[in-house]
Amino acid sequence: MKRKDLLDIEPCETPETEREGIQAAAQLAEVNGAIWLNIDLFDGQLLKGRYFANKKTWYAWIGEWTQMRMKNVVRAINGEKALKGASYWWENDDYHYASEKDREMVNNYLGTILSYFEDHVLGERTVKRMKRKQERINAVMDLVPTVPDRMAQWLDEEIFTEGYLFVDEKGNRNYYTCTKCGKRSWTTRKFAQYKQLACPKCGSLVKVEKRREQRNRREQIVLIQGLRDGRWIERQFKAECQWSRSGKEIELYENVRCLLRKGEHWGDMYYGTLNQADELEQEWWDKKSRNQQFQRSYLYPYNLDEVLPDTGLQYLGLDQIAKKGRKINVNRMIIGSVGREYLEYLVKSGLLRLAEETCQIYWKEPLDPYAKTMQDLLKINGDRISRLKQIDGGMAALSWLRWEEEAEGERKLSQEALEYLEQKNMYPNDCEKILQAVGSPTRMVNYLKKHKKATVSLWTDYLQMAEEEGMDIEDDIVCRPKDIKARHDELVERRNERQDAEKIKKNKEKYRAMNQEIVKYLPCVARFFWESEQYEIIPAGRCEELIKEGRILHHCVGASDRYMEKMAAGESWILFLRKKEDLETPYYTIEISMKTDRILQWYSAYDRKPQEKTIQKVLKQFLTEIKQKQVRISA
């Protein structure tokens, strides 16, 4: 049947009663031997639209065919936008049936109300659509070959190489089981936990385990394979190894697949819907159901000579990386390799880290893609290239070697310092202020090694403040202090004191006026003076005290005028909790209501609460005792 045949149905009679809005009149009609429900939509005496339904579907005509739901058909007739999502259900129907008979005819034919019928049809369509999509995905997944037989051996011998000697002490005997050879025996010999030794039976190097029943380790694995239709696939697995007295077991769970054509760097992604499922159990979909992505992994090496030519990525050097047993993000390297044929030379030269880091830079070209030689590519001479290879340096080490070469002999960088800078991923641009002060990266590195608390950001911040204070940052005593954290904090405090002094000077008259009001309440707040064996509580007496308290404890009590204004109005008061052993050092700041004696808030440095339970007991004792003092601000 063609949809246009439905338009041959004679329209329903115009509703006898004129009502505001769209009226729906219904009838049953036979079309090509099938009974259809016809609902005609009238605006007054004018036929504006027609709606046809059978048990499985519906169509609507409003000058053109549409499969909008009835509510949206009516909105289209009224010149309004169609509703989508939750908003569809929030809006009331913009039509009504011409008579109760029309309503009953619709409900009886459909077996339910019209909106429920539409829900059911849409649900059936969704199920069928999803089923067809799943069948298409399954057909593609059926093309994927199984994991190579050698995968298990590779995981066992090259990835999970550890061995354990599980020991159970019983009296004078120590019963042991070796996961390398599987032998069980006993000896009077004592074994130390975690000690590495040779198995008494097979001689393999194993680690003693006396406390746990099993040891576990997880690794991410990537497998690249070709498909029968000429495409290729990148597969991400999670490999889990478990060592126990029963032996060594390895499970391989597949999570992500990426399907590509030869020469492509982007492809179709598929994600496993089951959490712990192998390649045969896993079910696949093209949307993520959880956090699933390609990760740094070991790349299976033993099929790459055969597979890589079919991918068009043989220049990338993935086979060299895999054979060296290096973990890389294979997917990111594939994506980042576009137009970077020089990556093969980096890999073959042993610069694996540089090759991987280059592929992670998308926003610019880190190396010259048109270079003819390694020296032109890296912008350093042959001697420095050799130094870079020795440590398998990345972008950080390369930037330091370029920094050294640009000075044409005026800068010297030791190999030991270069290796440290690479490990810490430090760049010359990050260290400009430090280099200005100490003169050489070697001296900088020696200081950082000696002072574990020192970081580049902390040191740079300290030198910047020292320079602002007029100090000579090239003086060794200034630029390389024994306790850089203490010196840094000292300069921060000095700067903050100066800023507070400027703030007080700027608001001198304002604070003077508030202090005059605060003084009036001091007799009332005298009841808040309190002490125990270890602590003392002191009420604030001036605005300046709040500013100092907030600066030292790094919280908001002095940052704004709010608490000062509340004190001046007699609404609440700020109290200082001190340890008796050090009354000059702020510990906790408390805000208490002047009218109810209820503690509103209490915080220490950085809005934290050290020794919270202890301080809660102290404050409870404080409140109990001040209740005996009857002086109050009237409500």
Describe the secondary-structure layout.
Blueprint lengths: L21 E10 L2 E10 L2 E8 L4 E4 L3 E2 L3 H8 L9 H4 L4 E3 L2 H11 L3 H28 L8 H10 L4 E7 L2 E6 L5 E4 L8 E3 L6 E5 L4 E13 L5 E13 L2 E14 L7 E5 L11 E2 L12 E2 L4 H8 L6 H6 L6 H7 L6 H6 L3 H8 L14 H5 L3 H9 L4 H12 L8 H9 L8 H7 L2 H10 L5 H13 L7 H4 L4 H23 L1 H13 L1 H4 L4 E2 L3 E5 L3 H11 L8 H7 L3 E8 L8 E6 L5 E5 L8 H15 L9
Describe the structure concisely for a colleague:
The protein has 635 residues and is of the alpha+beta class. It is built from 24 helices and 22 strands. Strand 7 (164-170) and strand 8 (173-178) form a beta hairpin.
Keywords, separated by commas or semicolons:
single chain, 635 residues, alpha+beta, 6-stranded mixed beta sheet, 22 strands, 37% helix, 22% strand, disordered C terminus
